[in-house]
Amino acid sequence: MASSGGMMLAMMGLVAALVCPAVASEFISMPTDDVVLPDGLSYDFHAQSCPNLQDMVRAAVVTARNKDIGVVAGLLRVFFNDCFPNGCDASLLLEESPHYLSERMILPHNAGLHEGALNLIESIRNTVHITCKNVSCADISMLATREAIMLSGAPSYDVPLGWMDNFGPATFDEVDEFLFIPKYSKIFDLVTVFGFRGFDRTDLAALSGAHTIGKTRCRRVDDRTVTPGDDVEFVNFIKKVCKINPDHRQDLDVTTPNTFDNNYYRNLLAGKGVLGSDTELLLDGVTKDLVEKFAKDQGLFFSQFGKSMSKVAHISVGANYGEYRRNCFRPNFIRNLTDEGFVARD
């Protein structure tokens, strides 16, 4: 359910849309070269202090992906769900504690996070910290996500590095405000939530292309309604499969589910969008036009996806302060208490 704050944002967005009708040219994202980096960050932050960082991340992601292709979509979801509520600060990685409510426990927003992806980030940190102590879990998450996408077929893109790890998780209200639930999201809701974080319709359409890989649980599609343009037989088929086997995990891209490409958009135009929030892109003139353009031109999609992903990595809600966690799943003060015997060990 949307929070009261979310409903207020929605009303504000509706008023703005009525007063200032949008045209496609108004929704073209700015190149990331024009984005001002927050203080202390740079694209080559670790170049001198940890020159082998990228190689270590890449090697770990290659191994993990070879064992479980699902880790790619898993890393993407961890990245998005960490960054949107409170900036890219690795707060989502924190496990439940008597000291706070873990973001992982906020449902349904963070239900079904890929354990392999979470564990991979911590495993990379453990390897990296042998030689490079001052690399945050937040930076590792960004780099691992980018590597996973590149290994799946997409080109590279810039991410700002030098982020610190937050001392605690985002609050329930922050998560509820900024993590929409695909099953219930209408195009207006999507535009509003993305807009409040500084993203336009171009970003929304491009970032939705992340659904070119990965799977979704049946609870996301079991009561999916048919919208204009849907292939009715396809929608009924995936709902029937889920009714027979509620534990089934449905590919989001029904043609090339393990390759990062533009078939997601082609599927939408063919009426084979899996999530209701995906098909909503066809109900807005601007986003529908973008879907058509991305379906025709994979290079255009790749270019805009990279720019929009870099914008996600730039989300900042305040000063970049925190710590370099010695375990991605616990803030250092809890780890120190554990080491001193004041907290029960796992």
Automatic annotation (TrEMBL):
Signal peptide: 1-24
Disulfide bonding pattern of the chain: 50-132, 83-88, 137-328, 218-242
Annotated binding of Ca(2+) 2, by residue: 212, 253, 256, 261
GO molecular function: heme binding; lactoperoxidase activity; metal ion binding
Ranges for domain Plant heme peroxidase family profile: 40-332
Enzyme class of the recorded protein, top EC level: oxidoreductase
Site description Transition state stabilizer, residues in chain: 77
Primary site of residence: secreted
One cellular-component annotation, GO: extracellular region
InterPro entries assigned to the protein according to its UniProt record, in alphabetical order: Haem_peroxidase, Haem_peroxidase_sf, Peroxidase_pln, Peroxidases_heam-ligand_BS
Keyword Calcium: yes
Binding sites annotated in the UniProt record for Ca(2+) 1: 82, 87, 89, 91, 103
Binding site for heme b: 211
Name recorded for this polypeptide: Peroxidase
